[in-house]
């Protein structure tokens, strides 16, 4: 097989793919496996074997094709060895860190960290920002010191800090509780501040860029409207002013990438610098140097976070291709960039941003040209090029986007065709205005006014496309959905771009195309009904996969209760469709945080009674008003309240009268049904759990809904007293908080409680059959082996089940 395709050098694609797969597997392994020398030694042994093979092949004078294959195997095995070695080295540094001992002891320590990311608001739902904790942020950082002594610079995530004085590059000192993050997380530890932060400002260069960004945001705010909110996003990726409605429309229309610092932003900056240098008559090498210098300045301006550096690396790919003077050089440069980035940080392999950057760049390099040539037969050449770019990027990225959310922006390509041409204008003119504001304020603001026009056009397109019927169509979830979409896309591209299509194959190809389209159309139309066809109809408990949040359905004798709604109405609606639930007799809102009430719009108009705790002003009003208008009855309740649901009886164990609203005022529900009993803990923290124990003697339970998504803020006595068979953890994948924590999983293991996690299993249905719990899970979930108490790791439902097949029932041992 030729190593080139239409002039493109594809020989390094396979080594890049092998490096990616090796890094993905390495960081997905448990901590003990990553830190072991065995995988690293095996990887290097394979690389050595490949090297010996290459030497033998060359000395024996084999054919050029055999030598090329041997060389490719050597490069691939060497790349795999490098990334596995890097993951191993990082794991050793994490294990040797003082934070590891602090996490194991559940201790608090004094730390100093350097911010490597811009602080982000602690907000569970972007659609309900008023429910966020005001002033509290989370950020990524690099460890500097522990208890006053210098420490190895491991990556950490800080959550629940006050925003005052924080900025990229700042040094923050504080006392923190330490939790070990899962091995697959890029950050090794999660730190929760205890008390105030002592913040030192960043260096002069970063302080200058921060002041420039702040001035730019203030000037853009004076423009008003959605256009003013989008200008900073287009120019420097600052989306702080983008409201919830506009953000939702941008996502629904597949335009949110325009306001993120991506390879496209970097490419625009470098292309402009390259063109200016060319206009001055500079030779090619000088143009590349100027473009790289401009890119470096842009990265400093927008802060060199990991995502920005990644985007910059993808832009450098284009520059390398240009400098090489060879067609197809960009594919080889992209492959080298992928291997280099994975060698520096193997955790990029599991980063969706990295995957989208690579896919978008690959799409532009491999697909934009052929698509443009095909379009040029029907439209003028320049227009064909303009249209080909967003089409190529969208087609390449869509399979990855399906992994993030099992839906397709039906009009995403159309939206990008309409809005895409305006984005470079908004980016270049907005960036020019940003740079001119400090020196020529009037000229800079005039540039922002010009940039406001394309930004407003993008907002109009986003709102218009999002309002169309069927703007978001459901798709098969997870890897099967991504694989199906990739196959359909590849087939369609082959049909459209193939140069030779003999007449005798036209009917066969057309038939294959109809079949390929019929499968996804069936999934799009059926959506959750396809999944529901394999789900048991006699389920009793449904733990809905709503991301980082809680939503649990209970069914008894024809009546249905829903405990919390999760953060997202669309995710809850999908669960309701999957379970076939149309009416909610009792809705229990444990408290008013967005990850528990943000999806309430999905059930407005189909709720009978709403049971809730102490009201919390505007936070609770915004949730109550739509359902009250639709006829729901609201009951504020405290400990001691009782009621019935079908054949079940329930009682509130918490909160006591007078408890102020918040996590520790969560409604705690004791639900007793024929044959089993459940305890639902909301987001109750350890202190409140202890106070509840002092008021109430807990019974033995068959099922417990774990508090606060599996955080470390738990009482061992509660889970020991409950001694439940099953523990449900409503938690989002890659949630950034390290949930569920090893401490919580240790508590459940000590109590003999099997864990059902929505991040691994998706929506999970539990059925009570002949006195036994049976579990059906929506997706194939990686289920680590059970642990002895105190050994860390991840527990899972099913005892020793190594994998939980999608749609398969698993019997859970019950001691009662």
What is this structure's SSE topology?
Elements: E1 4-5, E2 8-9, H1 13-28, H2 31-35, H3 37-59, H4 64-96, H5 98-104, E3 108-115, E4 120-121, E5 136-146, E6 149-150, E7 155-162, E8 171-180, E9 189-200, H6 204-221, H7 225-236, H8 244-252, H9 263-279, H10 284-302, H11 306-324, H12 329-344, H13 352-366, H14 368-375, H15 381-404, E10 407-409, H16 412-419, H17 422-436, H18 441-466, E11 472-474, H19 478-497, H20 503-526, H21 528-532, E12 541-543, E13 552-556, E14 559-563, H22 569-579, E15 584-589, H23 594-597, E16 607-612, H24 618-629, E17 633-636, E18 642-645, E19 648-654, E20 668-673, E21 676-680, H25 686-695, E22 703-705, H26 716-722, E23 726-729, H27 742-750, E24 754-757, H28 758-761, E25 764-769, E26 772-777, E27 781-782, E28 803-804, E29 809-812
Parallel strand pairs: 7-9, 14-15, 15-16, 16-17, 21-22, 22-23, 23-24
Antiparallel strand pairs: 1-2, 3-5, 3-8, 4-5, 5-6, 5-7, 8-9, 10-11, 12-13, 12-25, 13-14, 18-19, 19-20, 20-21, 25-26, 26-29, 27-28
Structural overview:
By secondary structure, the protein is α+β, with helices and mostly antiparallel strands. The protein has five domains: 93 residues; 99 residues, OB fold (Dihydrolipoamide Acetyltransferase, E2P) (Beta Barrel); 111 residues, no CATH class; 51 residues; 282 residues, Metallo-beta-lactamase, Chain A (4-Layer Sandwich). 49% of the residues lie in helices and 18% in strands. The protein has a nine-stranded mixed beta sheet with strand order 17-16-15-14-13-12-25-26-29, covered by helices on one side. Strands 18-19-20-21-22-23-24 form a seven-stranded mixed beta sheet. Strands 3-5-7-9-8 form a five-stranded mixed barrel. Helix 6 packs antiparallel against helix 7. It is globular. The termini are far apart.
């Amino acid at each position: 097989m030729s190593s080139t395709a239409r002039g493109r050098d594809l020989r390094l694609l396979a080594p890049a793919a092998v490096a990616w797969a090796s890094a993905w597997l390495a960081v997905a392994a448990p901590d003990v496996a990553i830190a072991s020398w065995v995988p690293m030694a095996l990887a290097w042994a394979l690389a050595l074997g490949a090297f010996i093979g290459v030497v033998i092949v060359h000395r024996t004078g084999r054919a050029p094709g055999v030598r090329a294959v041997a060389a490719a195997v050597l490069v691939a095995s060497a790349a795999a060895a490098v990334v596995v070695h890097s993951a191993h080295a990082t794991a050793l540094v994490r294990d040797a860190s003082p934070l590891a001992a602090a996490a194991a002891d559940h201790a608090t320590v004094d730390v100093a960290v350097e911010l490597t990311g811009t602080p982000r608001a602690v907000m569970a739902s972007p659609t309900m920002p008023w429910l966020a904790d005001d002033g509290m942020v989370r950020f990524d950082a690099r460890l500097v010191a522990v208890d006053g002594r210098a420490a190895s610079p491991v990556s950490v995530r800080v959550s629940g800090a006050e925003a005052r004085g924080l900025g990229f590059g700042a040094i923050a000192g504080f006392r923190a509780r330490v939790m070990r993050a899962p091995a697959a997380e890029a950050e090794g530890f999660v730190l929760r501040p205890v008390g105030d932060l002592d913040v030192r400002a960043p260096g002069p260069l970063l302080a200058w860029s921060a002041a420039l960004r702040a001035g730019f945001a203030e000037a853009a705010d004076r423009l008003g409207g959605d256009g003013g909110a989008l200008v900073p996003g287009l120019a420097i990726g600052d989306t702080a002013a983008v409201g919830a409605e506009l953000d939702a429309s941008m996502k629904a229309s597949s335009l949110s990438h325009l306001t993120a610092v991506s390879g496209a932003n970097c490419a625009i900056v470098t292309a402009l610098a390259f063109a200016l240098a060319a206009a001055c008559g500079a030779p090619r090498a000088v143009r590349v140097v100027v473009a790289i210098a401009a890119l470096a300045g842009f990265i400093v301006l927008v802060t060199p976070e990991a995502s920005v550096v990644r985007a910059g690396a993808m832009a450098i790919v284009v520059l390398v291709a240009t400098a090489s003077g060879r067609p197809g050089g960009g594919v080889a440069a992209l492959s080298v960039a992928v291997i280099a980035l994975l060698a520096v940080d193997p955790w990029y392999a599991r980063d969706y941003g990295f995957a989208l950057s690579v896919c978008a760049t690959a799409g532009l390099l491999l697909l934009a040209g052929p698509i443009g040539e095909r379009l040029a037969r029907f439209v003028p050449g320049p227009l064909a090029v303009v249209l080909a770019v967003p089409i190529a990027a969208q087609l390449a990225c869509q399979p990855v986007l399906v992994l993030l959310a099992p839906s397709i922006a039906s009009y995403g390509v159309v939206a990008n065709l309409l809005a895409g041409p305006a984005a470079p204008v908004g980016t270049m003119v907005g960036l020019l205005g940003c740079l001119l504001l400090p020196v020529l304020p009037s000229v800079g603001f005039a540039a922002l006014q010009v940039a406001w026009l394309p930004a407003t056009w993008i907002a109009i397109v986003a709102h218009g496309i999002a309002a169309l019927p069927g703007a978001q169509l459901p798709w098969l979830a997870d890897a099967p959905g991504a694989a199906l979409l990739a196959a359909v896309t590849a087939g369609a591209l082959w049909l459209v771009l193939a140069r030779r299509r003999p007449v005798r194959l036209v009917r066969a190809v057309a038939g294959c195309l109809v079949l390929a389209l019929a499968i996804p159309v069936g999934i799009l139309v059926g959506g959750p009904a396809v999944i529901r066809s394999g789900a048991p109809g006699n389920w009793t408990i449904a733990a809905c996969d709503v991301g980082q949040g809680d939503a649990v359905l209970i069914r008894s004798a024809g009546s249905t209760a829903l405990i919390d709604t999760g953060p997202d109405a669309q995710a809850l609606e999908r669960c309701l469709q999957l379970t076939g639930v149309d009416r909610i007799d009792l809705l229990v809102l444990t408290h008013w945080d967005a990850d528990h009430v943000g999806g309430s719009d999905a059930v407005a108009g189909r709720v009978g009674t709403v049971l809730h705790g102490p009201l919390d002003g505007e936070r609770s009003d915004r949730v109550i008003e739509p359902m009250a208008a639709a006829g729901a009855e609201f009951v504020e309740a405290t400990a001691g309240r009782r009621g019935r649901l079908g054949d079940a009886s329930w009682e509130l164990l918490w909160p006591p009268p007078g408890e102020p609203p918040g996590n520790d005022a969560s409604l705690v529900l004791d639900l007793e049904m024929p044959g089993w009993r459940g305890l639902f803990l909301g987001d109750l923290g350890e202190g409140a759990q202890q106070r509840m124990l002092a008021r109430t003697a807990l019974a033995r339970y068959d099922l417990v809904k774990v508090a606060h998504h599996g955080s470390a803020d738990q009482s061992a006595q509660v889970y020991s007293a409950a001694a439940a068979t099953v523990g449900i953890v409503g938690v989002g994948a890659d949630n950034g908080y390290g949930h569920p924590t090893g401490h919580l999983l240790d508590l459940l293991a000590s109590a003999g409680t099997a864990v059902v996690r929505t991040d691994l299993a998706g929506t999970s249905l539990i059925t009570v059959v002949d006195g036994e719990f049976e579990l059906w899970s929506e997706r194939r979930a990686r289920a680590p082996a059970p642990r002895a108490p105190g050994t860390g790791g991840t527990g899972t439902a099913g005892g020793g089940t190594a994998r939980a097949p999608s749609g398969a029932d698993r019997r859970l041992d019950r001691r009662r």
